């Protein structure tokens, strides 16, 4: 043990001092006082220290809760402006084990016949089978059945159902739960989803998983509770501030509501990124046949989780990068991750092989298009349905092979052109400069495109070209 006079005096690293004042109380010689200058890096006010009469007792160092707030001054420290404490003090000494992934387990689901359930219930069931035991939400029509089923089942499964005080609180709870490496989700509808976007940006920035099911309704504003698809722009191009993207699924049946929800949790953890499922109001309320999967998931713990034990103590989850070059590097990393997500694009093609008219539609309108294609085929019109199952990334690789034959693309949607914008952007980015003629059927306000309307539109095109 060195003599008191041999001990190093304290060294204050202003960028790591939060100005809590514990060191002020600890110093019996009253050499430390509250500061008056805001640190430009942190926005906090570090303390002032007068070391002239300091006896190096070290009480202030012991009192400081910050890992690099007050440290013993290194003998060879010459540059107090260093920004990285590792350079000055080296890595923090620890004998805690390095965290490793504890992988998921797959457990067989007891055999049972198909269920006949609403789309919202199917998605909730998919979440439970994917190992989700944390639900946060705020009831909002037409998504409420999802929250309702989770509220009734989660307590029986030792899970957590929390009716959050707001959508902002919902997404913040999901941020915290995702940080712990746990599966969490919410059901919401258009105005609620809008309110969650800031938090979604934080989750993407901090690379946190979580599944958002948005059962879209009529807008803008409060709009109504009838089905619409007018959040495509929001989900594909507007997930809060900054450089953000998330995989966006577009189910068309209750079965897909279950399957895509399970897949959403898988991808959310694979990429450490939120995943969005866009359904529409009809799909949430629609009853259909749903076959359960063979396996359910018993989640493990990812190595990066802030789990709270000794092994995970050093993990840090944050979306703050004060240094410009650090934030640029983080954005490059996110852009690389988005590029890898392109491989998750999915599409379902119906009667497209020889189609002169390729009709693009998703969610419930795709069901109307399927009926229209059957009617048109019976009349000898070669029409087909191209149904993007992911809207971001858009499955352009599945559409491109249809273009040499197709003379028309018809985009059918319950929005004023948001799906068409995605189609046009995907074509442009694929360097398709002379696409087939693009026309559209757009309804909104809760009115869906009808089968007769689609048949009439395509029939008129076919007659012009006959
Ligand atoms: S080392 Fe002791 S005397 Fe010096 S500032 Fe800290 S508490 Fe005060
Ligand atoms: S105890 Fe540490 S963090 Fe708190 S004011 Fe003192 S130096 Fe700053």
Describe this structure in words.
- The structure is a single chain.
- Helices cover 34% and strands 18% of the residues.
- The protein has a seven-stranded mixed β-sheet, with helices on both faces. The protein has a five-stranded mixed β-sheet with strand order 15-17-16-19-20, with helices on both faces.
- With 466 residues, it is α/β, with parallel strands linked by helices.
- One iron/sulfur cluster binds at residues 12, 17-23, 46-47, 63-64, 66, 69-70.
Key traits:
single chain; binds iron/sulfur cluster; seven-stranded mixed beta sheet; 16 helices; alpha/beta; elongated; 466 residues; five-stranded mixed beta sheet
> Structural class of the secondary structure composition?
alpha/beta
The counted number of beta strands is 20
Portion in strands: 15-25%
Gyration radius over CA: 28 Å
Shape: elongated
**Low-confidence segments, ≥5 residues, pLDDT <50?**
none
Bound molecules: iron/sulfur cluster
**Helical stretch tally:** 16
Strand order of the largest sheet: 8-7-9-10-12-11-18
Largest sheet: 7 strands, mixed
Distance, first to last CA:
98 Å
Give the fraction of residues assigned to helices.
Answer: 25-40%
Average pLDDT rating: 93
Write the layout of secondary structure elements.
Layout: E1 10-12, H1 22-26, E2 32-33, E3 48-49, H2 59-63, E4 70-72, H3 85-89, E5 105-108, E6 115-118, H4 119-129, E7 134-137, H5 144-153, E8 160-163, H6 167-179, E9 184-188, H7 190-195, H8 197-205, E10 210-216, H9 232-237, E11 247-249, H10 254-271, E12 274-280, H11 281-285, E13 287-290, E14 295-298, H12 324-341, E15 347-350, E16 357-360, H13 363-378, E17 383-388, E18 390-392, H14 396-399, E19 408-413, H15 418-429, E20 437-442, H16 451-465
Parallel strand pairs: 7-8, 7-9, 9-10, 10-12, 11-12, 16-17, 16-19, 19-20
Antiparallel strand pairs: 1-4, 2-3, 5-14, 6-13, 11-18, 15-17
Helix pairs in contact: 4-5, 4-10, 6-8, 13-16
This protein binds iron/sulfur cluster (2 copies).
